Amino acid sequence: MAKIDAIAELKADHVQVRDILLDIIEAANRRNATKALELLLRLDKLGGPHFQWEEESFYPALERFFGPEYKEYLFSVHDRIIRAAKQLAEILGKGEITEEESRKIPAVIRSEVLPHPIECEGLTLFSGKLTKEELEAMAEHFEATRKEGLALLEWADKVRTRKVA
Ligand SMILES: [Fe+2]
């Protein structure tokens, strides 16, 4: 029996993601690359198990409600976030944020990353339609992905079968 409630954990992750994203925007506005990179690494760590679980458990379980096309769209949103995370890591890895980058970082976060927690919260609307057994299996899988603890970009490069160019 899993020790966690998968949907509660999902929602708690989104709260953390929201705060980290807003803090990265603030750090970018102040051109504080060290702080922004530290926040991005936290996001990378949190996002790996979260995305892996969504793609392997959550989205497949919800597919019977919203259909395969919408599931494909959700995967493509993850593709965009992985691409954005690589872009942000490249900028912040230089150790400084230029004036231009201080405008680019918030724009990338707002257009490519923030829509996910907003939309993913909405998906929890369907969790009440899942069976107890499904929720239990999902909770066990969430625990397992966290225990494995692959960071987002590590998972995207090494485990995820869908590749992002
Ligand atoms: Fe999510």
Write a structural description.
The protein is mainly alpha-helical. It has one domain. It contains six helices and no strands. Helix 2 crosses helix 5. The N and C termini lie far apart (39 Å). 30% of the residues are buried. The model has no long low-confidence stretch (mean pLDDT 96). It binds fe (ii) ion. The site of fe (ii) ion has 5 residues, from helix 2 and helix 4. Fe (ii) ion binds next to helix 2 and helix 4.
Summed up, what is this model?
The chain is mainly alpha-helical and 165 residues long. It is built from 6 helices and no strands. The protein has one domain.
Overall domain count: 1
- Which ions and ligands are bound to the chains? fe (ii) ion
Principal-axis shape equals elongated
**Spatial separation of the terminal alpha carbons:** 39 Å
> Which spans of ≥5 residues are poorly predicted at pLDDT below 50?
none
Helix content: over 70%
Based on secondary structure, the structural category is mainly alpha
Percent in strands:
under 5%
Rg over C-alpha atoms, rounded to the nearest angstrom: 16 Å
Given the structure, what is the number of helices?
A: 6
Mean pLDDT: 96
Order of helices and strands: HHHHHH
Largest sheet properties = none
For the structure shown, list the relevant keywords:
165 residues; mainly alpha; 6 helices; 0% strand; binds fe (ii) ion
